[in-house]
Amino acid sequence: xxxxxxxxxxxxxxxxxxxxxxxxxxxxxxxxxxxxxxxxxxxxxxxxxxxxxxxxxxxxxxxxxxxxxxxxxxxxxxxxxxxxxxxxxxxxxxxxxxxxxxxxxxxxxxxxxxxxxxxxxxxxxxxxxxxxxxxxxxxxxxxxxxxxxxxxxxxxxxxxxxxxxxxxxxxxxxxxxxxxxxxxxxxxxxxxxxxxxxxxxxxxxxxxxxxxxxxxxxxxxxxxxxxxxxxxxxxxxxxxxxxxxxxxxxxxxxxxxxxxxxxxxxxxxxxxxxxxxxxxxxxxxxxxxx
Length: 290
Ligand SMILES: *[C@@H]1O[C@H](CO)[C@@H](O)[C@H](O)[C@H]1NC(C)=O
Ligand SMILES: *[C@@H]1O[C@H](CO)[C@@H](O)[C@H](O)[C@H]1NC(C)=O
Ligand SMILES: *[C@@H]1O[C@H](CO)[C@@H](O)[C@H](O)[C@H]1NC(C)=O
What we know:
- The protein has 4 helices and 18 strands.
- The protein is of the alpha+beta class and 290 residues long.
- The termini are far apart.
- One 2-acetamido-2-deoxy-beta-D-glucopyranose binds at residues 163-165.
């Protein structure tokens, strides 16, 4: 008797210790489906849908499992830029890790179109969302070492900070293109604050980002992003950006944008002259996931 209560007690305690609290906020959503195009996946020895689902649930980087013909495969949210897509289809199963808050009333809806398939990892802090249409779902990871940002306009952008002292904006753009991106714009205060934490000291120093002064006339206090995918100007509010009104034709005009860090100032974006490369310690490349 005592043996058994001890057994249950220790079993319970082990579960409490091993299962992060955030797991209560996560569900596996099971649908009939088949994975039509696949990047890297991991084969496992799980033999039932239930075990396959639970195995993925417990593996932190597993965002989806695919069970077909008694074979269970796991898919990671980090697969170096690869994509996979899921088409609704009977006879095989797909289960997707999803934040419970995305499931209406925490119950199973009639159709997958009522769920936002999106998982926030306690390990990375990043959110990994699937794209969805009426016939299926798809997911694309960022390339290794590129940070994922899921934006308010529904787009997904991957960013890579390249440390490089004194680089010109032109050189930064060349290097970003070699890496498969472009010097990126910044869509929110949150994004610029994240980038600011990566600026190495001693300060003030900054990273080139993909935006500049944009006026037909002078003086000018209007800026635009030039990456082709950043649409929000929320990061350029006065509480976040130290932007001057300037003549964009002056020799000293500060026409280029940086994420900068200056000894504790809450501001994260600064406009500088393109020749002020002594302030530059790197640049931020980005690309939008299609
Ligand atoms: C959620 O639950 C509430 C209260 O039970 C109910 O009124 C509401 O209709 C439910 N919403 C959905 C989307 O099922
Ligand atoms: C819907 O998504 C599926 C899975 O990603 C894809 O194969 C299909 O082409 C998409 N359909 C449309 C109309 O975009
Ligand atoms: C940039 O310069 C600083 C200070 O001289 C140095 O510590 C750092 O290693 C340099 N960074 C790179 C990427 O060269």
